[in-house]
User: Fold this.
Amino acid sequence: MCVAVPGKVIEINGKMGKVDFNGNVIEVNVSLVDVEVGSYVLVHAGYAVEVVKRELAEELSNLFADLEDVL
Assistant:
């Protein structure tokens, strides 16, 4: 099973972008999607694999936070 984590794109430089995951900023390859600064993306294995709406990104982030609380 693969898990893609949502984050907000805060910078783009060519094929790479900086994505904010609740305060953790990671460099991500954005070459697979059409993305702009401010977009929310799902990231798996260092690649942005899908652009999603902010509401979905927030919902997924909340679900991951709930899972952390349980574990």
Q: What stands out?
A: The longest strand covers residues 5-13. The beta strands are 5-13, 16-21, 24-29, 40-44, 47-52. The first helix runs from residue 54 to 70.
